[in-house]
Write a structure and sequence with these properties.
Oligomer: heterodimer
Structural class of chain A: mainly alpha
Mean pLDDT of chain A: 92
Largest sheet of chain B: 9 strands, mixed
Strand content of chain A: under 5%
Largest interface: A-B, 20 and 28 residues
Low-confidence stretches of chain B: none
Helix content of chain B: 25-40%
CATH architecture of the domain at 419-504 in chain B: 2-Layer Sandwich
Number of strands of chain A: 0
């Protein structure tokens, strides 16, 4: 979680990620932010995030991102 | 090609020929050509009834998300003799205010959902809601006024205005005439063989002139426009389904938008079997991303387009007929008919020798009218040029540098000034710096752009935290102008001219 917040803060450090629950739905992350985030997550956790994973439910909060990363690491 | 006086003649022809055929769709609705024009004229009548204009060529601002109604509204503005300026709701209120101050629109057409947001930026100009305009659709008593203004619309009447970043901190509005759009798009349709069978996937927001290549091409051919909302670009599976389900055949997109699909591995999710044409502009296309596209849409025609809004969309095109190596650059290519594109050195002489960089300059068809309400910038960039035969013509100096290499091809080679291309947008770094400097407690700032990583870094001296500065800037500038990284400095190193030494920033 800490690491994910760190990655997100590198993209935009004016957002309170710990409490934000609608990163995608409220357009806090734009498409370019997502590209950076995906790249960083794939590198950091050695996973591959398919396009089909890129739905708001997987990216709206740090918890959701973390859960997705865990799931992909285990699969 | 037939002689059209205005783009309206082009639309009339297509409505007559393809009346019942689909003209445009968004996520919620679709219009046939007949319906589109009928609804457009509702907007026209609302404008004529509210503004009492007698002459053509006045600005009208539109504030809406992308939709078939937005398309009807801009068409309606043109039928009423006005030129449209689309104001993107993604921008912060302060920037919208600046745009309205420069434009001084006769009135603003605002989608009902955005009325509140717009009011935050506007207190001077007349506003009418989309729903109010829709009530005018059946007002036959206004038909005569519509005919009256039509006689006043000529080839030199402005068609649209596009705001771009200005180095003085004030955005500039490029205004383009009906004739310029007709001249360019008729070549565009011919060369790239657009037909009424095409389904155009419109990615570009309507404040980018890439959208003109979608919209006016549809006007010319009767092709169908599939309007893609920006929110789809953060939901790749939804985007790919939308494109494939609607059988989109043609993509004229910003490089950055195409790269979203290739970078996010969207082709593994779904292919785009109907796409036969992929054209891109706005930035240099990374060869590795182009290769992903070529692998996944093997039968499509790929074209690199180049040109700033001031020359109406594009002035050169390069058909990509082979695979490029990672270390190769894609040439700017051939010149569209009716215009000249050449390189000038610092003394204003045409460069003919290979490998000497010069400024790309353009003469001939389709030059913009200039910057609206900005005589100074217009004079600076649109100048007189004496040709070899002694005749003097109007010329636009792009500020882009290029080289002609040994193989005779022209290649992009950077900028003369501090303009950059970032996330598909044209940005003057000075506009960002002015934004930062307007923050109390900031003494000085410099922005740098890392081309390879496509990242803007802001260096500043002042007693303020980075995240506070970022939050402040978000209120002033559109998201794509916000630096990716902020670096607080104790002081700047000055060069011998007393200016900040940009080379000493790391």
């Amino acid at each position: 979680m800490e690491k994910i917040i760190e990655i997100l803060q590198d993209i935009d450090d004016s957002v309170d990620y710990a409490n934000e629950k609608a990163l995608i739905d409220d357009h806090i992350l734009d498409s370019f932010g997502i590209i950076s985030l995906i790249g960083e997550l794939e590198e950091e956790y050695d996973i591959s995030i398919d396009a089909s994973e890129m739905v708001p439910a997987n990216f709206n909060s740090v918890e959701a991102i973390s859960a997705m990363v865990k799931r992909l690491q285990e699969s | 090609m037939k002689n059209y006086i205005s783009v309206l003649d082009v639309i009339d022809k297509t409505v007559q020929q393809f009346g019942e055929k689909d003209a445009a769709m968004d996520e919620n609705s679709s219009f046939s050509w007949k319906e589109l024009k009928k609804n457009a004229l509702g907007f026209s009548k609302a404008i004529l009834d509210t503004c009492k204009v007698e002459e053509s060529g006045y600005p009208i601002a539109v504030f809406s998300e992308k939709s078939v109604w937005l398309l009807a509204s801009i068409m309606g503005i043109n039928y009423a003799g006005g030129f449209y300026v689309y104001i993107n709701p993604e921008q912060p209120a302060e920037r919208i205010k600046k745009i309205l101050e420069v434009l001084e629109p006769k009135m603003c057409l605002v989608d009902d959902d955005l009325l509140k947001k717009f009011e935050k930026a506007n207190d001077n100009f007349k506003v009418i809601s989309f729903s109010k305009c829709r009530e005018y659709v059946d007002r036959e008593d206004l038909d005569e006024r519509l005919l009256g203004i039509r006689d006043k619309i000529g080839s030199t009447t402005p068609l649209y205005g596009i705001f771009t970043s200005g180095s003085t901190g004030v955005p500039k509005c490029v205004v383009v005439s009906h004739q310029s759009a007709i001249d360019f798009i008729s070549h565009f349709v011919d060369i790239f063989e657009f037909t009424s069978e095409d389904v155009i996937g419109n990615q570009a927001p309507f404040d980018f002139d890439v959208s003109i290549k979608d919209i006016v091409t549809a006007y010319f051919t009767g092709a169908k426009l599939v309007l893609i909302p920006r929110t789809m670009f953060i939901q790749p599976p939804v985007l790919m389904d939308y494109l494939a389900d609607n059988k989109v055949s043609s993509l004229t997109w910003a490089v950055s938008a195409l790269c979203i699909i290739s970078r996010l591995k969207c082709f593994d999710y779904r292919k785009l079997p109907d796409v036969k044409r992929v054209m891109f502009s706005g930035e240099v296309m990374p060869v590795n991303q182009l290769c992903i596209w070529q692998d996944n849409v093997p039968n499509a025609r790929f074209v690199n387009l180049y040109g700033p809004s001031e020359i109406t969309c594009n002035c050169t095109y390069y058909d990509i007929t082979r695979r490029f190596n990672a270390d190769e650059k894609i040439p700017l290519g051939k010149i569209f008919p009716g215009r000249k594109v050449f390189l000038l050195d610092e003394n204003g002489n045409v460069i003919t020798k290979p490998d000497n960089a010069g400024e790309i300059c353009v003469t001939g068809q389709s030059l913009a009218i200039g910057y609206y309400h900005n005589e100074e910038q217009t004079k600076l960039h649109f100048v007189s040029f004496k040709q070899e035969d002694g005749s003097v013509v109007r010329m636009y100096k792009t500020g882009d540098l290029a080289k002609i290499s040994e193989d005779g091809e022209m290649y992009f080679a950077g900028r003369k000034d501090f303009q950059i291309k970032h996330m598909g947008h044209r940005i003057e770094l000075e506009e960002i710096e002015r934004g930062i400097n307007s923050m109390p407690n900031v003494e000085q700032s410099v922005c740098k752009f890392d081309f390879d990583k496509s990242k803007i870094t802001a260096y500043y001296v002042g007693n303020i935290e980075k995240n506070e500065l970022r939050a402040f800037l978000k209120e002033k500038l559109p998201a794509y102008m916000i630096p990716n990284k902020f670096v607080q400095m104790k002081e700047f190193v000055l060069n011998k001219n007393g200016k900040i030494d940009r080379t000493k920033l790391a």
